[in-house]
C-alpha cells in the first residue's frame, strides 16, 4: 500500500506538511493571466518555477501552456532581477508579440525585494514596451496563501492596471468566475446569456485551455477577456464575485476604486449555490428567470428525487480549494449525504467558519481544517471511514489504500479528461455531478453485491 | 508560422547541418523572456535523488517545490515507497523573516522518528539560499542525534541550470559512497549509473547483466537503497548512462576509489548491444562473460528483429523531431530511428555541451536543425518547415505536437512502458508506429473539407 506510512493516531504537526492539499501562488497567477486574450504570463524568478507551473497546467488541461521566465541567476539574486526583467520584456514583445505581459513574482524575487512597478516603468521609459501594449503585474510570494491566493492577486492586477471609469454607467455586470475550469466559465457565460444579462467576465480561460484541435499551434488562442473589456469594468453596474477566496479581492478593488458595487457569492456548484447565483442575477438585473433555466433546475431536482434513497446517509470526505469545498459541502448536504471530513491546504479563517455554520445543525460531528494536508485527511478517514472521497488526482492514493469510491474534482486532475469540457457549475453541471456520484455509488453496490442480491434494476 | 523570427540571443544556439562555421553556443543560462522548456537546479537534484526509495526526501522551502515534485516520475521501487510521498517544511512569511532552521529541525526529527529511513536528503530551495538558513548545521545536528546520514542537497534554484542540480545530487550521493562494507563483492562487478528505473527499465538491464554473469552492486538511482549506495565503491566498474546527470559522480568515484567508468546507452538495439559488449570486454579475464553476452544479444535481437522489420516497412521515410534533456539520449534516438527507417530532421537538448553538439552534427544528415535550449515557438516553426511526422520530447512538448497534428512519443518521465534494452526497442517501435500511423491525424478534416463520409 502506497500510503502504508499513514498512522491512525493523529499527532499535532507544526513544522511539516505531508502530501499537500495546495500549491504555491504563482501557478494560480499564471492560470488567471492565461484568461486574458493575447497575454503572456511571465514568471519573475528562477526558471524552474516557470517550468513546473507550465508542466502542472499542461498535465491538467492537456493543452500547451505558454509562459516566460526571468531566468534568475546567482547574480540577479544578489543584485536584483531588474536587468533580467527589462531584458525579458524586450525579448517577449519582440519575439512572441503578446498584447500584454502579466508578470507575477516568486518567493525569490519577493524576498530580494524587486519592485515590479518601478522595473516595468523603467522598461517603458527605455522604449521596451511598444505602443498599445501593456505590462501588468501581481505580487505572488509563494510563502503566503496558496495557488488560489495567486489567482486572486492576478485578478486584482487586472483591475489595478486596466479598469477605468468614464462616468457613463453601462448596463453590464462584471463576473469574476473564480478559480474554476474553462468549461465552468463557458457554462456561466451560457447561463448569463440565457438570463439576458450583459456582462464582462474576467478572467476567462474558456477557448484558451480547452480549445479545439486545429492542426496549428497558436501562442494565443481565440479565448480570453480583452483589454477593451477589462477597461470597461469600471463603468459596470455591479460585480458578482464567485468564490470568496479567488474573486473577492478584485471585486472589492473595483468597489473602492470605482464605486462599482459588488456582491460575494459562493461558487454556483450544486443546487442551492446555483439557486443563489440565479436569484442574485434575477434581482440585480431586474429580470425574470427564463423557462429554459427553470427547466434545467427541474431536471436536476428530478434526478435527486429519483435516486435520493442512494444518497441518504452516505459519508463523504473532501479536500481541495476552499471556494469549491464550501459549495460542494452544501451540495452533499442538499442530497442528504454526510460530509464528515473537509480539508483545504489554503490558509484562511473564513473557510472553517462557513463550513461550521453550514453544518451547525447536524446531529453529528464533522472534521474541518484550513491549512491542512491530505495526510491529515487520510488519518481522519482511517478513524471514521467514508463512502465517497472527493478531491484532485492526488486523492487516488487514499482511495486505493482505503478502497473508497473517488470523485475527481479540483486542481490538478492529471489522470482523467473531461473537466475542461464538462462543467460542474450551474444546473447542467449539477446533473453531471449527480451522474458521477451515482455511478460511483451504484458501481460499488454492484461490485460488492452477493450473487443472490446482485440486482438488475437499481 | 514558418517566417517567425528567432531571438537574436538565440541564433547561436541553433545550427543547420551543412552550414559553416559550426560555432554553437550552449551551456548558457536561458535568455530572460524565453519560453524555455528548461527547469532549475532543484529540479535536477530532485529527479536524480528521487528514486532512492528508502530515504526520506524533505523539501525545505515554500510548498510549491514539494507539490510539483510529488510522485511525478515513474521511477519504480520493488520495495519501500517512502520516496513517493511529499514532505515539505512549507515555509511561511514568518520563517522568511526569522529563518526556517527551527522548522527544518523539528520536521526532520519528527519524520525520522516516524519513518526510520536509512538516510535523509534535505533539499535547499531558492528561498533558503536567500534567507541564509544553515542547512548543513541542522543536518549535522539531526544526523548525530538520530544516527543516520542526513545529507543537505544544495539545490537553490537560481544557482545555475538543471545540470548544476545533477552536480549537487552527485555530491550528496558521494557522501554516502564508501561508508558501507564491501565484503563479498566479486571481481566482475559494476554499478549502473544514470538509470532511474522509469517503467522498470533498471530491472530489465540488471537482468541482462545477471545473465552475463556480471554482479550489479548498486543502481544509481533507479530502485536503489541507501545500503547499496554506501557499498558501491566495492564495484570494479561504473557503467554510466544518461551522461548529463551521473558522469560527474563516476569521475569522482574514479578519483577517490580508482573505479574506472565507461559511458553507455541502453536505447536502441545497436547501443544496448554495444553497452553489454563494452562491459563484457572490460572483464576480459573471464571469457565466459563475453560468450554469455553474445548469446544474450543474439537471443534478444532474434526475439524482436522480425517485428522491428514489420514496423520499419510502415515507418520508412517518416521524419522525426527530437527534443530531449540530455544530448546523449538524442544520439541513441537518432540511431534507433534510423533502425526504423526514419530520418531525424530536428535534434535538440536542454543541457548538451559543445562536444555533444559536435557529435550530433556528425550524426545528422544535411539540413537537420540542431537546437540548444529551444522554446515552443522555435520547435513549432521547424516542425512545420521540416514536415515532421513524429515528435519525441517531454510533458510540455506533447500538446504542442498534438495541436499541430504530429505524432508524439514521451521519452521522459512520463513514459509508461520501458523503452530501454531490446524489449524497450520493440516497445519504442510499437509506440512510434502507433502514433505516427494513427488514424487520428486524418480526423481533423471535416466532410466539407473533402473527406469521405461513411
Plain-language structure description:
The complex is a heterodimer of chains A (458) and B (454). Helix content of chain A is 46%, strand content 13%. Chain A has helices at residues 25-33, 47-61, 74-79, 82-96, 107-112, 116-125, 147-162, 182-195, 227-232, 244-258, 271-285, 291-311, 322-334, 349-358, 374-383, 396-402, 426-448; strands spanning 17-18, 39-44, 68-69, 100-105, 134-138, 173-176, 199-201, 238-242, 262-265, 315-320, 338-344, 367-369, 388-391, 406-408. Chain A has a 5-stranded parallel beta sheet with strand order 12-11-10-13-14, sandwiched between helices. With 454 residues, chain B is an alpha/beta fold. In chain B, 44% of the residues lie in helices and 15% in strands. Chain B has 17 helices and 14 strands. In chain B, helix 1 (41-49) packs across helix 7, helix 4 (101-115) packs parallel to helix 6 (135-146) and helix 11 (269-282) runs antiparallel to helix 12 (287-315). Chains A and B meet through strand 1, helix 2, strand 3, helix 3 and helix 4 of A and helix 1, helix 2, strand 3, helix 3 and helix 4 of B. Strand 1 of chain A pairs antiparallel with strand 3 (87-88) of chain B, so a sheet runs across the interface.
